[in-house]
Amino acid sequence: MLAPASWRRVASWICGWAYVVGNITITLAVNFGTSLFFVGCINVFESEPGVGIFQYENYQLYLIFLAITILCNLVSALGNRWLP
């Protein structure tokens, strides 16, 4: 292995937790980017020049983010019969 015997447990602990934190962080970042993308796609349509049809508040964007996150978690947790 790459690590000396005295450092194997510490190195594997750091590597494991870095993987978990990175996995959670990238998942949440992609979900937040997707919610911003959805709002941007909706606001392509304008009610007046320069004003989108959906003027969102921060809590509305957060609720969209939560809905996307819950949907992704439900698909991965309950969708085994449909996923390959």
TrEMBL record:
**Tagged with keyword Magnesium:** no
**Keywords recorded for this protein, A-Z:** Membrane, Transmembrane, Transmembrane helix, Transport
Q: Where in the cell is it found?
A: Membrane
**Its Gene Ontology molecular function terms?**
transmembrane transporter activity
Q: What is its main location?
A: membrane
Annotated membrane topology is: Multi-pass membrane protein
**In which domain of life is the source organism classified?**
Eukaryota
> GO cellular component annotations, sorted alphabetically?
membrane
Report the coiled-coil segments: none
Q: Any stretches that span the bilayer, and where are they?
A: 12-39, 59-79
Q: What is this protein called?
A: Amino acid permease/ SLC12A domain-containing protein
Upper taxonomic lineage: Eukaryota, Fungi, Dikarya, Ascomycota, Pezizomycotina
